[in-house]
Amino acid sequence: MKLKTLATAAALSAAGLASLVTTPSAFAQAKEQFFPVLVYRTGAYAPNGVPWANGYVDYIKYVNAKGGMNGVKITYEECETGYATDKGVECYERLKGKGATVFQPLSTGITFALTEKAPNDKIPLITAGYGRSESQDGMAFKWNFPIAGTYWVAADALIQHIAKKEGGLDKLKGKKIALVYHDSPFGKEAIPPVQERAKINGFDVQLLPVTAPGVEQKATWLQIRQSKPDYVLLWGWGVMNSTAIKEAVATGYPREKMFGVWWAGAEPDVKDVGDGAKGYNAVTMQHGAEPNSKIVQDILKEVHGKGQGTGPKEEVGQVLYMRGMMSAMFAVEGVKRAQEKYGKGKVMTGEQTRWGLENLALDQKKLDTLGFAGVLRPISTSCADHMGANWARVHTWDGKKWNFTSDWLQADETILKPMVKAAAAKYVAEKKLTPRTPEDCKG
Amino acid sequence: MLYRENGQFKTSYRADQQIFPILQDRLAIGLLLAFAAFVVPFVAPEYLFRAILIPFLIMSLAALGLNILVGYCGQISLGTGAFMAVGAYAAYNFSVRIEGMPLIASLLLGGVCATGVGVLFGIPSLRIKGLYLAVATLAAQFFVDWAFLRIKWFTNDSSSGSVSVAGLNVLGLPIETPVQKYLLCLAFLVVFGVLAKNLVRSNIGREWMAMRDMDVAAAVIGIRPVYAKLTAFAVSSFIVGVAGALWGFVHLGSWEPAAFNLNRSFDLLFMVIIGGLGSIMGSFFGAAFIIILPIVLDNLTVALGFDTALASHLTFMVFGALIVFFLIVEPHGLARLWSIGKEKLRLWPFPH
Fold first, then answer.
1. Which of A178, A434, B243, B310 could make an SS bond with A229 (beta carbons 3.0 to 4.6 A apart)?
2. Would you call B47 an interface residue with chain A, using a CB distance cutoff of 8 Å?
3. How many other C-beta atoms can be found within 10 angstroms of the C-beta atom of residue A429?
4. What is the ipTM of this complex?
């Protein structure tokens, strides 16, 4: 290589680096609130990550089309994490510097890493339906908000649903339930509540880990064929779900007896399997696929109708799209709630937004005006409870769409509360943190 | 002109054996280190520290470790991620199970544990080599992934399998801010860099290189293959283990086995190959290339207005093309380009 080429290459890379280091600072002057959007549109989990991201971005566009948050427009920037923790951390650091209001990591692994960082940077983390289950305890986790539900709620609701099918919780005695889980922090979150329930209700649990990303499950399903569990709980994500259902078809395990977590209950998981997936169930945190809800109609009109939509129009209102939209709604409502205290029409800081998220009061009336009537039940968070609601439903795939097949299920607080308290206390002790005092909650 | 070394005569063995025999090199390295230690902490923004500099320093350390094994001793390893994981989890266990364990000690003990595991998985290298050895070290990767996912003792019975550390300090000085973390990593890298450079110049380093170039000939002239290969595995895994511990403790703060998966091993191998096999300097170049380039490309594509999915795919494509380009144009890696540059400067302005 010639010296000249070498010099050109060096100059080029220097220019690239320079563009990296300079961060834009001018936008903070205008009335704009910055929302970082951590997504994965590539990689093994992309089929599920894309609809979530589309829903999230569409909701932001919708809010802007409606005049923003009391006049404050939302600016946003996507960052591709590919579901990798170190990439997520890099995204966090990059977007943090641009005045981030709130982060939604969309990965349990990234949530764990960011939980360590958020308190220092004073940026709240919304983990709607994932993340650390014990972070429901706001006294220990000041900056984490698993709004609307955690994996422990999901597991408890599922066991209750199964018990109902059997004719009561006492009928679970002696039954065998297999837990097929993604071998990562995400999948393992399911183990404590299921084991706790097993102790109380006297059923057997068989733990069957599946290595990420989850395409290799032959051995797992061989074990299921041998042990013939009465029910299978599926804690999967991405390609693992459709593989599991295909394996169930191959081994002849009845799909009616399979219950997925809410990340294993969306259209991309069952579509490829076709008729084989008929009868497969999944728990879902409040919302399901709601193509007829008012908010979906509004988005179709205001965003997609004006050619501004993200992603295909047919996917609007599907399960993961709804989840992305709902997650964005929590962030927007958090900011709006904060504005009620710190001044309407102002740009909120991370700390102020944190207060808003902690005092979220989405009652029925509010949900109706937002267009979420029938999609969600009321959610109200507090200092001690960062989750706000513990309701779930089970829906079933009929070959074409998801239909609700259960009533509203509420997780049993008498079982989960002590577990959350204990896990949060362990975290606080391990980290040598001081938990918040009641005075801290008044601020 | 700039690099003319006329008049720099060496009159003692000591002067002849310096790491940087040329005055200009000594000056440049001295200035670079002074800049890194005394200027960068005051001027660089936080993002640069957290997203680029700290990962770069730690990955350089890991690449340095791997380079000793692959570049100097010629033993191809695909288990680097595993040895990093062993370092990280061992250091974690030392720090949570032993009250008042100092940070540096637990990091180094993490390295010691990685050494043990590295030597264990290095034993097959006595009988097999090349591609076969690569596959054997792959076993380390799978075994370690399995162990840390399944054996709860290693993760201190954490229900999710993810572990985290906090309240880091060295001799009472907290390691909390990005600058402190950066300086800690820099100190580790400088110390290990000097140690490694001296090791490869010493008799053991020559044994490694003899082993790499032709093991039969090396054995004939009296080099013990067992000793040479296993020491290479030991030194390499030790450095890689410490890098893994730093990656977990300092960079991520909270991690799961996926942080040290097979991709990590591949990345490190690419770093060594692109940077330059058998070159200490090359490890740094390789790490910089692999860490910084995707981020630069990411930022550029986003700045140009592509959507994230396309940007991410584009990054992969450009990245792959660049690797192929480099391997064709300069198979000895970036370190070789660097030395060509120096040669040219030495002759400039009178090229032959």
1. A178
2. yes
3. 11
4. 0.80
